[in-house]
Amino acid sequence: MDNMKTLALTGSEEKAEFSGSNAWLRNDGTDTVYAAKSAGIAAGADGVVAVPAGQSAPVYGANGTVFLLGTGSVQLIGSDYSTNPFKTSAQSGGSGADSVARAAISAHAGNTDIHVTAAEKAAWNAVNYSNPNLLINPDFRINQRGENSYNVTGCTADCWLSQVLFEVTPLENGIRISCVKEITSNSFALYQRVPVTDALHGSDLTMTANIASTSDYAYMAIYAYGTSGTVVKSSNKIKLEAGLNSVTLESLPDSTAYIRAQFTINTGAQIGDSLEIAWAKLEIGSTVTPFVPPDPTMELLKCQRYYQIRTTNDVDPLDLRPSMRTITDIKQVTGGYAYVAEL
Description:
Layout: E1 4-10, E2 14-17, E3 22-27, E4 33-36, E5 49-51, E6 56-59, E7 65-69, E8 71-79, H1 96-107, H2 118-128, E9 154-155, E10 161-162, E11 166-171, E12 174-179, E13 187-195, E14 205-213, E15 218-225, E16 231-234, E17 238-239, E18 243-249, E19 258-265, E20 274-284, H3 296-303, E21 307-310, E22 327-333, E23 336-341
Antiparallel strand pairs: 1-8, 2-7, 3-6, 3-8, 4-5, 4-7, 9-10, 11-12, 12-20, 13-19, 14-18, 14-20, 15-16, 15-17, 15-19, 21-23, 22-23
């Protein structure tokens, strides 16, 4: 498969193959082109990237196959990197994209307002404006312990904790939390603890979750804890609905030592009631920015700061790679020994 190719779109959905993890696209035509990792493209749908005329955009995690819908010429470059390989300046000269861009600039030369479509704004935001995700393993894909499901008070999928009232099942796309007992008091079902540095004090924090399905008893909130382990401030606790849900904790107190991004199941839930989460994001600020799927290799390295499996139980902590936080336990597991660090 070629790593770089030119595609001529005729208005029907087309499939293009390439070499690399990410598909970088430059629209050299005159109309917006839409792209996605899977077939059945619909403008504005989840997972569909809009590439305005004269602009470029990535489809992250396409892994060799991308689907396109539109008309005109499109340049495709396959890449394992997140850096844009295209020069998008309208002054570089020579390409059809530059001609389109120069014409658009000339048409609005006398205007004091910027005119963009909703699709163009969404595409530019996705490429150019996405805050870092403070959560580790936000799409639950790292599962070093290897269990098909968990019914424990403690760790489940890497860096996410639950308790024995629930069964937690990693899925192909996300995670499912199911009640194994009737819930008689509001109970945490899944959470991640995030250490806080002085640089975060005073900041707003926003948590967003993409909910695949939910019951009437599922909620989400952000909790700030002091060094003594008591809650010093919390966001509103919002009831979850299918789709995107967001909540903001304003002005993180200076006494905050760590926060918990938490999903809760409230009183009244029955055995079998469940919540499915596709992904979660915690970011600085009160504005929700797009979720960018993390690179699995880099995410595994982050998770291994807290949990690693080795063939022996006598590895010097200084020799562990990546280096771990304070180790709290070494226990025998299938395939070797698990080194466990404090979360």
